[in-house]
Amino acid sequence: MEVLSKLSDFLDAGGDVLWVILAVTIWLWCLIVERYWFFLRELPENRSGQLDHWREVHSGSRWFNQQKRRQLFSEVECSMLRNLKLITVLIALLPMLGLLGTVTGMIQVFDVMAYMGSGNPRAMADGVSAATIPTMAGMVVAILAIPFATELNRRYQRERRRLHTAMSRAE
Amino acid sequence: MKAMIRPFKGWTFAALAVVFSAPILAQDSLEALYQKVSADARAEAAYNSTREQEFLARANEREQMLEDVKAQLAAEERRREEMKIVFDENETVLSDLTEQLDRRVGNLGELFGVFRQVAGDMQSIFFDSIVSAEFPDRLDTIERLAEAEEVPTIPEMQELWSVMLQEIAESGNVSRFDSDVIQASGETYSAPVVRVGTFNVITGDTYLDYESSTQELVELPRQPSGSVRSSAEDLYSAAGDTTVPFALDPSRGSLLGLLVQSPSLGERVQQGKEVGYAIIVVGVIGMLIVIERLIKLARVSKRMRRQLKDMEHAENDNPLGRMMQAYYENKHLNDLDALSKKLEEVIFKDLAELRRGLSIIKVLAAIAPLMGLLGTVTGMIGTFQAITLFGTGDPKLMAGGISQALITTVLGLVVAIPLLLSSSLLSSRVQRLSKMIGEQASGMIADKAVDIAKTKA
Using alpha carbons only, what angle is made at residue B439 by residues B435 and B441, rounded to the nearest 5 degrees? Predict the structure, then answer.
């Protein structure tokens, strides 16, 4: 309960943009978890299924084999590639959202200055925290997600190579 | 002779007669003239003696009068002496009595001072309090009490604390009463209003401001956000003893007053000036292209799915169908290379159609933050020009440039973020579709190859 109230305090201090950042963060981590689930659980079955299929259909004609392999290969590749690009885009978006929060927070600060003058730093503190927290949050989430995103990309390349060799060997 | 006769008017006439008649009487003897003059002189002497008699008589009379008045003056002076003695006696009596009064009033004097001071304080509080909108009569009461010159009576004192108690009690009450409300346009209408303590007055979902100088309820020209207004609506329509959440202004209206000053979304956008509008135009164009692409891709993928279910009949309205048609038309060729080239031609055309607009969206998404930066820089230039001209003394002169700088940055980001997201969404969708077409093409050519192999065998 205390954690929840602390979290809501933190979100309130960061302003509206922080909620958007939270939503994007949740989306991003759902996608990353989904990808890991896919690579660790679904892909092996998928791959063995495709390889079995490949062994069934491949015949003597070299050209036919090439075309059929291309078809099967691209099916797996398509499922591997799904959401990978979106993860990268979301990681690029997070610092942008942080910047957006900074600027809206600055506007808040200047609004307060217009009402109360610059003599009251306490009144401006709200806007300043709304300016800094989203930037920090966006950065932190992006930096935390970047290793996973690159790892997923590497995994994709590796699986792709592995499938390629597996199919060549089965031929 | 002239100097002598001047005081006597009658004589003047006589002399004139003498002068004017002289030539006429020239023939008469000087004797006659002498007779006349001496007669006149006698008459005059007689007249003067009577006048002298009169004067003497009147002088006696006046002397008598003077005597009388002197006697009267002496009498009055005597009276004055007597009165002064009485006055002095009264004065001492009065000072005795005043002293007695002061002694008897004692602490009560202090009490009356406090009473007056409290009444004055309460008057200014009541004047600003929205409770006065419900009970306008009490303003007259408190004014009478605060401005009373005389010593207040016990009923008046009781009146003061009863109105104070009323204010305290009403500050914890939610009450409903009818009142005239002035709209922002100036029209007046009568409506039931709900007063929440001394904090807010609402009617329906509208927050009202209490104009203390005219003692009127005025609709705020700019209302707070929707959720706050719906909480007001809930309170307004709530019946009896139910508990409803309500957003109130603990500063008794001054926060709501600031709300009127704070710029709305539209005014904020206006602060972005030309650059801001240009960014919005870029964003609108970008979103239109995105929507067009989304509809187009959805339609194409739906048709392709339909085509996949029904591989027997090639439709002309989707890339897959077109590819199949090209395949069936060139089936007779029996040359796999030529066939695959034909199919690739059709595929390329369709892929170009699918990819159309994607690069524009990407470019717009990249341009929008740059335009925001441009606005920032132009805004800062404006600010520095203002500083050059007026110095840094007045922040309000710099505010225009600063708000332009900030707003354009916000606009640039707000436009870029959805464009970037939808660009990625669209390109992954296009990738999926193109892979689908490519896979099907490969499969189809392979099947064809099997057919050819069979016919050769």
Answer: 115
